[in-house]
């Protein structure tokens, strides 16, 4: 039977159309803040459920009858050349047109064209609040789309009204966007007049960061599909999807939709397997849907580049809650909230290196039908593959590293691009990259075999010994005894020539068989 509901990957979710979890399930704090007539901010990366939460919140408040509530977007005023006067009109028009979706006519504000006073957001909200018997909860979306003096003007008007709430101004205002309020200051030119305080919105009581789905919540979401169709997402499938997505809501829905609709063609009698999950992951990465494209676009920004390079290399970054680059990457959902700092989920860990070394991947000519790195029994010849990379690296690296935007992470990215053929041949690469570890670990799975590669830059003379100790510990955690330590020399070939830096050595270390590959 065909399900009436489906996994949504575009726009906000509606319970009658989409599988969804109650977005207000863990948000007692929001209702407490509203009850206390507080102003607050809600922020989260794109496509994590902000707009769904806002719509659900406004409808619930209106239904319960103690407040009147409207969600509206200020994005129409979000460009640099706009004047304050025009911005005010656009924002007020957006508020008025949105109010009809949530309120009956008597609770809506006056049509802007009939407003006889000076048309500012502050005046408009004052007159609306005075005309109502119930307090107003205003949910203002896309606040961080505003720039310069327009942003200053909107925040100042809201701050002015805060003093006369709830009788003569909205009782509660929530500002919603990608970033917390501290980031708004960076959207204002230094030459512009400040708001006269350390924070541009110092009346806010709380900043609420929306979290990702837990494994239990993913199970709950998928069980709705099972209830509708009888098609089951087994525990091992949910576990793997959680590993891939880290609970990122768009990815959780996208993987399920890819399996159910694209791969299984909505044949609900078919069993969902781990192979379907891997295929769905690969399809989504290859297709680079809007969500992934918006993530990739951020990689060009300098403060994102600094953090992502450090993660790929395992370099140290001094963690500081006030370090804006780290907070920025966390708010965008690129890095995890927990230490050690790493890329937020396995799909992002997969796509980021692919994007950063795409030009190289495209230029590496794939062989014809004969894949020289595959043995006659169909197994991967890792020694042959890495020796070929040594040769490739010594001949091409200096030219390629010069072209890379991410020069610091260049050696690691070159090897990952070279190993991409393993994935193209049906294998899998799990990347373990985290700030401060001094290394990157790759676990390559191919035709039943596993290979551990540890990548390390030779920044210090102790790099080799540390690398041996680290890979031995890593092999212990995996219950393996064989691994490869890849050491990249960072001094130019004019100082250390290629004929002395390219080395291959098999040794025993802490009861492990380690192949040291230097270049």
From TrEMBL:
<dbReference type="InterPro" id="IPR027417">
    <property type="entry name" value="P-loop_NTPase"/>
</dbReference>
<protein>
    <submittedName>
        <fullName>ATPase domain protein, prokaryote domain protein</fullName>
    </submittedName>
</protein>
<dbReference type="Pfam" id="PF14516">
    <property type="entry name" value="AAA_35"/>
</dbReference>
């Amino acid at each position: 039977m065909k399900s009436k509901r489906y996994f949504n990957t575009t726009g906000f979710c509606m319970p009658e159309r989409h599988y969804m979890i109650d977005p207000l399930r863990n948000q007692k704090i929001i209702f407490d803040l509203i009850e206390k007539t507080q102003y607050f901010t809600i922020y989260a990366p794109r496509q994590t459920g902000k707009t769904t939460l806002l719509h659900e919140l406004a409808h619930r408040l209106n239904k319960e009858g103690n407040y009147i509530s409207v969600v509206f977007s200020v994005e129409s005023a979000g460009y640099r050349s706009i004047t304050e006067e025009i911005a005010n009109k656009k924002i007020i028009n957006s508020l008025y047109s949105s109010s009809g979706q949530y309120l009956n006519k008597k609770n809506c504000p006056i049509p802007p064209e009939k407003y006889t006073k000076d048309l500012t957001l502050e005046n408009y909200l004052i007159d609306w609040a005075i005309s109502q018997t119930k307090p107003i909860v205003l949910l203002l979306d896309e606040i961080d789309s505003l720039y310069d003096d327009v942003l200053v003007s909107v925040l100042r008007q809201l701050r002015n009204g805060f003093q006369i709430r709830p009788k003569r101004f909205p009782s509660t205002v929530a500002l919603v966007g990608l970033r917390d309020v501290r980031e708004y200051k960076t959207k204002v030119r230094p030459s512009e007049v400040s708001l006269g305080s350390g924070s541009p919105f110092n009346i806010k009581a709380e900043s609420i960061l929306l979290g990702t789905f837990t494994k239990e919540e993913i199970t709950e979401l998928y069980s709705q599909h099972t209830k509708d169709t009888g098609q089951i997402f087994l525990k091992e499938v949910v576990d793997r999807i959680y590993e891939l997505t880290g609970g990122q809501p768009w990815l959780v829905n996208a993987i399920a939709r890819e399996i159910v609709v694209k791969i299984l063609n909505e044949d609900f009698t078919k069993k969902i397997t781990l192979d379907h999950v891997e295929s769905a992951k690969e399809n989504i990465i290859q297709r680079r849907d809007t969500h992934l494209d918006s993530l990739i676009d951020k990689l060009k920004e300098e403060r994102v580049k600094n953090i992502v390079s450090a993660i790929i290399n395992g370099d140290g970054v001094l963690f500081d809650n006030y370090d804006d680059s780290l907070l920025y990457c966390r708010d965008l959902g690129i890095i995890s909230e927990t230490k050690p700092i790493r890329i937020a989920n396995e799909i992002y860990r997969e796509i980021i290196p692919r994007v950063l070394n795409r030009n190289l991947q495209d230029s590496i000519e794939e062989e014809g039908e004969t894949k020289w790195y595959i043995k006659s029994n169909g197994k991967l010849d890792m020694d042959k593959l890495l020796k070929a990379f040594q040769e490739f690296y010594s001949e091409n690296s200096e030219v390629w590293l010069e072209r890379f935007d991410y020069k610091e992470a260049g050696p690691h990215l070159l090897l990952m691009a070279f190993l991409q053929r393993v994935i193209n041949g049906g294998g899998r690469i799990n990347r373990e990259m985290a700030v401060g570890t001094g290394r990157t670990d790759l676990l390559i799975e191919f035709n039943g075999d596993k290979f551990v590669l540890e990548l390390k830059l030779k920044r210090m003379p102790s790099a080799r010994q540390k690398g041996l100790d680290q890979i031995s510990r890593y092999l212990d955690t995996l219950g393996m005894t064989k691994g490869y330590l890849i050491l990249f020399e960072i001094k130019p070939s004019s100082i250390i020539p290629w004929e002395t830096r390219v080395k291959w050595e098999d040794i025993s270390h802490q009861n492990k068989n380690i192949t040291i590959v230097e270049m």
